[in-house]
From TrEMBL:
Keywords: ATP-binding, Kinase, Nucleotide-binding, Transferase. This is Sphinganine kinase lcb4. It comes from Linnemannia exigua. Transmembrane segments: none annotated. SMART domains: DAGKc. One of its GO terms (biological process) is sphingosine biosynthetic process. GO terms for cellular component: cytoplasm; membrane. Residues 120-261 form the DAGKc domain. Pfam families: DAGK_cat, YegS_C. The keyword Transferase applies.
Length: 491
């Protein structure tokens, strides 16, 4: 391979421009990005970030494609942060006139080989769109924002609009997985939950569970998207698409949830009490978008309603400061990708066996179970830091530590403490509040004692009956550029 920097002289109208790629950045020297013609064909129109000297720098991860078009145009397609407070990425097509075609073709080949060094270029996706997710904007988000970015990157796809509940699950169960590099859901977490459960229920789950998934935020909560992209970018469609095009398969744990004779796989939250009420009891507030969760949670915290239950768990760490140290230690370790690790499901172990026996097995004292009979405001197990925008319930969550985060707001919290805790969930600081219990557990079992109420598994309404949860390491993979979730705990 040629050595860095790869340099190409091109023309941009009257300007002579030098394109220089050094393996980390692409630098444009002499370009004038202020003229609208330079972003012709961009969807949406690209921002200007030219400096006085006509220099501009684009990171490798932001480069989608380099194409030669109309015989003598070199087009560099990028998705980079726009100027302004949100720093949301936007698609731009930067257009130059080629002066020396053989050199331009060589430059294109060298740059693309490096930009897509560890990742397949021109991936083919199965795309599922829930036209009714969130506030019903998923179709528009796909057509106006996501699709142009995939096209610019040379990706292709088969598209299906979900027409009914469980449609995504049916599709995942029947999908010819060999055709696709990933399944993408333009939806909330509910459709992703269906896809994951569809893949896990297949007779060939041993192979199917390896098909990566990718969220494109089109629901109300978008917990996976926020966890991947962070508080500021979780709702940004172009950022999500960039992560899908340039990401690698990151191993992500699934929780096995057993209830009666059923088993579900959960990747977001298993909630009881207030959080389940907020999740499932606010359908009539869907018009509010993600604000429905905050508004409803506030009302319910003020009411101080409690829910009797028995909770058993196998604790691993119950101290919030120690959880933060462990989080930071782990966060600084090198990333491990799905193709560099083994999970529990392989030809030698073709089914997932719950180490702690599931809901119908007696609790073994040798496993270290602790049991509490009490009333709680809410008890939530989970595997993702963010539950929605401004609601970081499980800040110590890790994609693949093989453990479940368990959060309990006990009875008697009081309104003032309740308000402080609620404010704390914005940044995850609630876990340090004296009235909050937050821990890592190997498994937990929750038996509701009240007459009726909500239990939510990833936003799905499940029966009012005892359930048991344990995590299984790296059972699915999610496309990610960073190989870890966005930072959710302070250093
Ligand atoms: N065409 C459809 N008609 C009715 N329901 C649908 C349709 N397509 C999907 N669904 C159901 O909608 C549910 C919620 O979908 P989704 O997760 O996309 O949105 P959401 O609930 O707004 O988002 P979030 O889970 O982030 O809160 C899914 O469980 C799915 O079964």
């Amino acid at each position: 391979m040629a050595s860095f920097p790869f340099i190409l002289q091109v023309q941009q109208g009257q300007h002579q421009v030098e394109l220089s790629y050094n393996g980390q950045h692409l630098e444009f020297d002499g370009a004038d990005f202020d003229e609208p013609k330079q972003s012709s064909g961009c969807l949406p129109c690209g921002p200007s970030s030219a400096t006085a000297a006509g220099r501009r720098t684009i990171k490798t991860v932001e480069i989608l494609n380099v194409t030669i078009e109309d015989g003598n145009s070199l087009v560099v397609a990028v998705a980079s942060p726009k100027n302004g407070p949100t720093k949301e990425s936007v698609l731009e097509r930067l257009l130059f006139q080629v002066k020396d075609m053989p050199n331009a073709v060589q430059w294109q080949t060298n740059v693309l080989a490096h930009v897509y060094k560890d990742i397949k270029r021109g991936r083919h996706f199965k795309v599922l769109i829930n036209p009714f997710g969130g506030q019903g904007h998923a179709k528009r988000l796909w057509e106006n924002t996501a699709e142009p970015v995939f096209k610019a990157a040379g990706c292709t796809y088969d598209l299906t609009y979900t027409t009914h509940r469980y449609h995504a699950k049916e599709i995942a169960k029947d999908l010819n997985i060999r055709l696709y590099d990933a399944v993408l859901c333009v939806s909330g977490d509910g459709v992703l939950h269906e896809v994951i459960n569809g893949l896990m229920e297949r007779p060939d789950a041993v192979i199917a569970h390896k098909l990566p998934v990718g969220p494109i935020p089109g629901g109300s909560g978008n917990a996976l998207s926020f966890s991947l992209l962070g508080e500021d970018h979780g709702n940004h469609v172009t950022n999500a698409v960039l992560g899908i095009i340039k990401g690698r398969a990151m191993p992500v744990d699934l929780c096995s949830v057993t209830q009666g004779k059923e088993r579900y796989f959960s990747f977001v939250l298993q909630s009881f009490g207030l959080v389940a009420d907020v999740d499932l009891g606010t359908e009539d507030m869907r018009w509010m978008g993600e604000a429905r969760f905050t508004v409803s949670a506030l009302g319910k915290l003020l009411s101080q309603k409690t829910y009797p239950c028995e909770i058993s768990y196998i604790p691993v760490e119950t101290n919030a400061d120690k959880l933060r140290s462990a989080y930071n230690h782990h966060y600084n370790q090198p990333v491990v990708w799905a193709d560099q690790t083994h999970d529990e499901l392989d030809q030698a172990h073709p089914t997932i066996v719950d180490q702690f026996g599931g809901i119908n097995a007696p609790l073994q004292s040798s496993d270290g179970w602790v049991t509490e009979n009490d009333e709680v405001i809410t008890a939530v197990g989970g595997k993702l830091p963010w539950a929605s925008k401004g609601m970081m319930l499980n800040p110590a969550s890790s994609p693949n530590d093989g453990l479940v985060d368990l959060l309990i707001f006990p009875k008697g919290t009081g309104r003032i403490n309740g308000m402080q805790i609620m404010i704390g969930t914005d940044t995850g600081e609630h876990i340090y509040h004296e009235k909050v219990r937050y821990m890592k557990v190997k498994a937990f079992r929750l038996s509701p004692k009240g007459p009726s109420g909500y239990i939510s598994i990833d936003g799905e309404h499940t029966p009012w009956a005892p359930y048991q949860v344990e995590a299984h390491r790296g059972l699915i993979s999610v496309l990610s550029v960073d190989g870890r979730y966005a930072r959710s705990m302070r250093e």
